[in-house]
Amino acid sequence: MTENTDNVSKYVKGILRFQSLGRNKEARSETALRIEKAFSLMPRDVLELFLSGERALQITVGPDTGFPLGMRTKTQGPPDDRKYAISMQEEEVAWPEERFLGSFLRELGHVVAQRPPESEWPEARGDRSRFRERLEAIADAMVWRWGLRHYNMSHLAATYPAHRLEMIITQIGEILEEEQL
Fold it and tell me: Residues 6 or more apart from 54 whose CB is under 8 A from it?
């Protein structure tokens, strides 16, 4: 193993918690390896945000709730001391690897982009919905910027109907263009 792989492996072991998958060591190990792979795919400067502790992160795998919620990122704390928590269910752990990586990388995009806690989102229902949609597109654009678009597309194509996927891709393109200005 390289030093970078060792660092990522130690990091993941320190932040990954299982509330399910009990004694299924194979599933736990495969999940940890997939998460390690996601971190290893990221550009070195982005990975360093996590390894250095600049982005405080906790990852939890919980039991299925019966509702397909997908992976979620929660943010807590003031802007200068944010803490992030990514939660997923056993259902997501069982997804094909590319879809899992695409979804997980999107959640890491939220962390890198410093997604604000919901308490800081607009209060009006429509504004809140548009704000959340924008946050998702920003996270997706992060993954594209890292050169990992194919993983993101694997997740998006498996999650959204074609007409919605087109809208998401348009939003991502607009965000990437805004950054070029």
Answer: 48
Which pTM does this prediction carry?
A: 0.94
How many whole angstroms separate alpha carbon 103 and alpha carbon 31?
13
What region, left, alpha or beta, does residue 122 occupy, with left being phi > 0 and alpha being psi -120 to 50 degrees?
A: beta
Strand segments, DSSP code E, in the chain are: 16-18, 56-62, 72-76, 83-89
Task: Map out the domains of the chain as residue ranges.
Answer: 3-180
Q: Which of 87, 86, 94, 106 lies closest to 157 in space, CA to CA? A: 106
Instruction: Give tens-digit pLDDT for 46-70.
Output: 999 999 999 999 999 998 887 777 8
**8-state DSSP, 120:** G
Contact 89, 62 (CB under 8 A): yes
